[in-house]
Design a protein that fits this description.
Number of strands: 7
Strand order of the largest sheet: 3-5-4-6-7
Mean pLDDT: 87
CATH topology of the largest domain: Glutaredoxin
Helix content: 40-55%
Radius of gyration: 25 Å
Low-confidence stretches: 6-32
Structural class: alpha+beta
CATH superfamily of the largest domain: Glutaredoxin
Length: 367
């Protein structure tokens, strides 16, 4: 069930209220986060403040503070639900366990039609399709029941917040706007990626003169990165002449072909074929073996001998990729894809509407 639960949750289920699923931040109980004015350490007698340390690692500190706030929200959630079940038990004259069980049983009812619909949506999933039909139905029923129970609990909590029975007094951390400097090694484009055209040619704006700069941290083996491509192309078409789009490699350790693919694309970049390679690799994401990458490079139009030589001697490119990873982590990136629209972070497979919302905000602010 856990495999199916992860699969369906990633594609169907809205996240619970912010913070409820965060893990421990590693901050000892009872110890508050240091204020910006506090001294962090000394070097040769010179004091370095927390403000200075945070400035160099804004994203990581934000994630710590967000996890800390999440723990407070989680504790508040659990405490309120304890109160709610006790009240239910008192009002019904039943034991606390019986009142809770009855409520969840009623809210978690799943119909045959719901099971059938969900099975239809995931009929082609390789792991689910290998199960006997009875097991498939059992897995789906258990998941849908769990989801409905979670949704009913969220309705209880939403009502408690609206009625002020549940009030979070701690202040939620405000995500910083990150100052990301673009460097000469970054891969930059100003237009959609089309065969036979050069997306790196400035259109309407160039470099820092562009009203919008979007920095993408992604990797070639990530399915969610591929899923965002249509939205990215729509942004470049709709906001032509206003946007500079930058890509930085962020190959995740559990994707064994992500780094070789990044090296392959960077070697194509040495022949001004990065974006052609970028497009080709994502269009053939299931084919990332060495021979496949060579075929992609050929399709992208590179000089194969030069490209092979670059791939073989890729130490400097690996250092560049590692630097991109380090910069991403300093901004709080811990998964792919992650986007920064004029320094404002968007994470995951972002839809065009979300890009548009932030872009319009930024354009309005510049008027």
């Amino acid at each position: 069930m856990m495999i199916l639960k992860r699969l369906i949750r990633s594609t169907m289920v809205p996240a619970l209220s912010a913070g409820f699923l965060f893990v421990s931040s590693g901050i000892p109980a009872g110890q508050a986060l240091a204020s910006d004015a506090d001294a962090a350490f000394k070097v040769a007698g010179k004091v370095v403040t927390m403000k200075e340390v945070k400035k160099a690692n804004e994203g990581e500190f934000f994630e710590i503070e967000k996890r800390r706030f999440g723990l407070i929200e989680q504790a508040a959630r659990e405490k309120y639900l304890e109160y709610f079940w006790e009240k239910q038990a008192k009002d019904s004259g039943k034991s606390l366990a019986a009142a809770k069980s009855e409520f969840l049983e009623k809210s978690g009812k799943v119909s045959a039609d719901e099971i059938k619909t969900t099975l239809g949506q995931f009929k082609d999933h390789p792991q689910l399709s290998k199960m006997p039909k009875a097991e498939q139905e059992k897995q789906v029923k258990e998941y849908l029941k769990s989801r409905k129970e979670e949704e009913s609990l969220e309705k209880i909590l939403d009502a408690a917040r609206k009625s002020k029975e549940l009030v979070i007094l701690a202040t939620a951390p405000k995500e910083p706007v990150f100052n990301i400097s673009i460097n000469s090694k970054d891969k930059v484009r100003y237009a959609v990626i089309k065969d036979g055209t050069d997306p790196t040619a400035a259109v309407g704006c160039s470099g820092n003169d562009c009203a919008i700069t979007i920095v993408e941290y992604s990797e070639f083996q990530c399915p969610f990165c591929k899923r965002t491509l249509p939205a990215a192309e729509q942004v470049m078409a709709e906001y032509k002449g206003k946007v500079r789009w930058v890509v930085r490699d962020f190959p995740l350790s559990f994707h064994d072909r992500a780094k070789p693919a990044a090296i392959a694309a960077n070697c194509a970049a040495q022949q001004n074929k990065y974006w052609q390679m970028y497009k080709t690799i994502f269009e053939n994401q299931q084919k990332l073996a060495d021979a496949d990458l060579e075929a992609h490079a050929k399709l992208a139009g590179v000089d194969l001998n030069r490209w092979k030589s670059c791939v073989k001697d890729s130490k400097s490119l690996e250092e560049q990729i590692d630097a991109n990873m380090k910069s991403g982590m300093s901004f709080g990136v811990n998964g792919t894809p992650a986007f920064f629209v004029n320094g404002r972070r968007l994470s995951g497979a972002v839809a065009y509407a979300e890009f548009r919302r932030v872009i319009e905000d930024e354009l309005t602010a510049k008027k």
